[in-house]
Prior knowledge:
With 343 residues, the protein is an alpha+beta fold. Helix content is 36%, strand content 18%. Strand 10 (294-301) and strand 11 form a beta hairpin. It is globular, with a radius of gyration of 19 Å.
Amino acid sequence: MRTVKALGVALMALAVLAPHARAQSLPIALFERYLESLRQQAGIPGLSVAIVENGRLAWDTGLGYRELERFERATADTPYPILDLSQAVSSTLLLQQCLDLRYLELTDRVRRWSPQFPELNTTVAELLEHAAPDRGFRYDANRYANLTTVIEQCASSRYPVLLTGEFFDRLGMATTVPGHDVTDLATIRQFPPGALDRYSTVLQRVAVPYKVDPSRRATPSDYPRASVSAATGVVSTVRDLARFDISLDILLAASTRQRAWENSGSMPTGLGWFVQRYNGQRLVWHFGLARDAYSALYIKVPSRNITLILLANSDGLAAPYNLANGDVTTSLFAQLFLKLFVS
């Protein structure tokens, strides 16, 4: 609670200084200053950040340390598990390879593509939206992971191979790995020569996860390596995710992208993304959380052509804010970004 109050004080100061900063055309410099303050007050050991604006990488950097014990600094090329941000990638792959190519309809029942799925009537769209069987909203990454089979069946290939061939290699995402389990013998022969060596090198550089206690003391923690699925498992960097973000306009048909980034009824979600309004602007976003290990935040403001990407080696970006409820403005990190670049 003390940390949250301290962060609130910093944002109050920001509210006074932000208009002056905009007048000087220095929002990124001010953002970096306050982001570093938030990082320290939240006890996050290492934080990597990128801002994409008008279809280009406007700024990226690392703050703090990828490994405290060796004093190794975080950079924009530091790899992290991106956790549930993987859903933004997998939904884009599904929509591109299956919907835009007319192999699949959003109204298809999931069981058409994944016969073992336990729900009889749930559609592909409802699973993408985290719509529960009663049609209410219920965020459930484990349930969302069933889209892995849907993608593999409609695209006729293994999911990690699709990620690599259709996105990571094509977009130049050289520091992105399709899961810690890429050396699985069932898929090893399907990757291009040299890929596994490159993946191994990236995985050796993954930021060390930390548990942060109430006094902001960080100690290394154990992170169970998640197998890659539509819900989680990808390892990436903010610089590579910026490449993905810049390419979204060409990866999907405009009408498909519009459908993905709009709410369905009263749901706080589109197709693979959270969607909400802030000061009349549409926010398209997602988050990642591994308790006592890692966290992530990805916010797009389509009308302003600006995106924020944050990856951290503690849970401080997400754990205090209950982001699974669908309101990114509860995050002080989001508030900082929105006050400077959207308000």
